[in-house]
Amino acid sequence: MTNKRLYLDIHAIQNLPPSNINRDDTGSPKTAQYGGVTRTRVSSQSWKRAIREYFNSNSQAANVGVRTLDIVKYLAEKILEKDPSLNMDQAMDLADEIINLAGIKTKDKRAKALFFLGNDQAEDLAKAALEGVKDPKALKEILRDNPAVDIALFGRMVADDPSLNEDASCQVAHAISTHAIENEFDFFTAVDDLAPEDNAGAGMLGTVEFNSSTIYRYANIALHELVHQLADKESTLAASKLFIEAFAKSLPTGKINTFANQTLPQFLAVTLRTDRPVNLVSAFEEPIKSNTGYGKESIKKLAEEYKKAEKFADPEIFTMYISVEDIDA
């Protein structure tokens, strides 16, 4: 290992048609004030969830994790896979005992707080349970070793035992629109197919709030930390590649059946830096104003911000991009 730092920055410009992929407690699309105007906002938590779902659906060979209160049941199923002679009650008892010995508190065979456990860690815990391992130190070591890709990237916080915490090697920004937006309302009705012919009323009516926007998305990975967590260069390369793919192709699914807003980025750039990560959202502090669309202008502004950043940050050592628009690289 060396003391050198290496950061991977990922930037994207993406169009969202009428949609509500991330709503607040009132059902409204999330927003933020930036540059003196209201912007669409998609929370980092929402997009990280979508990325983790992409991991689970598209990386069967990868060591990915599960975050759940039902950690006892999850581990019990692993135990049953290894020893089918046991019944579910016996497996649940074994799982509950070993999880508590490892420092994770449960009540009624459910974790007291959401716990993030990697697939390989679960397999090793199940094996330890069947072998009768009772040493808390050894069991905690299992929970610290060989972290899942998503645990290494996004971190793990364990209030019961901070020694089991895992620092995140990845940061994901809240995505915001590159321009001002105004939320709109769709008034909808549903017809009762079996209603009498003389009943002209709707069987159901309501409203759904939405907006449309062009958004800037950003994330980074401290590769020098990720390789330390995964302890293997090949695994780090595979995890980084998977993250970039998931960042580009994942999408939060809020109201997706209503709006079918299945879009992909119009611009994606990956940059390697040795000094520090650089979020280029400042390109849009002055909101874009246009009557002919925001995508092309947003890509142009982001490319210009790359050059402005060189006045403060060290020059990047590598940049690769794909764009639907021609830009002055």
Query: How do the helices and strands follow one another from N- to C-terminus?
Result: EEEHEHHEEEHHHEEEEHHHEHE
Which stretches are low in confidence, meaning pLDDT under 50 for 5 or more residues running? Answer: none
Rg of Cα set: 24 Å
Category from helices, strands and their pairing: alpha+beta
Mean pLDDT: 92
Shape: flat
**Helix proportion range:** 25-40%
Biggest sheet features:
9 strands, antiparallel
DSSP, total strands: 13
Share of residues in strands: 15-25%
Helix segment count? 10
Distance between the termini: 34 Å
Can you describe what's shown?
- With 329 residues, the protein is of the alpha+beta class.
- The chain is built from ten helices and 13 strands.
- It has helices spanning 44-58, 71-82, 88-101, 119-130, 136-144, 149-154, 223-230, 233-249, 256-259, 295-309; strands at residues 7-19, 31-34, 37-42, 65-68, 106-107, 110-111, 115-118, 170-172, 175-177, 184-190, 204-222, 265-273, 318-323.
- Strands 1, 2, 3, 8, 9, 10, 11, 12 and 13 form a nine-stranded antiparallel sheet that branches. Strands 4-7 form a two-stranded antiparallel ribbon.
- It starts with 6 loop residues before the first strand and ends in a 6-residue tail after the last strand.
- The relative contact order is 0.21.
- The mean pLDDT is 92.
Topology:
Blueprint: E1 7-19, E2 31-34, E3 37-42, H1 44-58, E4 65-68, H2 71-82, H3 88-101, E5 106-107, E6 110-111, E7 115-118, H4 119-130, H5 136-144, H6 149-154, E8 170-172, E9 175-177, E10 184-190, E11 204-222, H7 223-230, H8 233-249, H9 256-259, E12 265-273, H10 295-309, E13 318-323
Antiparallel strand pairs: 1-11, 1-12, 2-3, 3-9, 4-7, 5-6, 8-11, 9-11, 10-11, 12-13
Helix pairs in contact: 1-8, 2-3, 2-4, 3-4, 4-5, 7-8
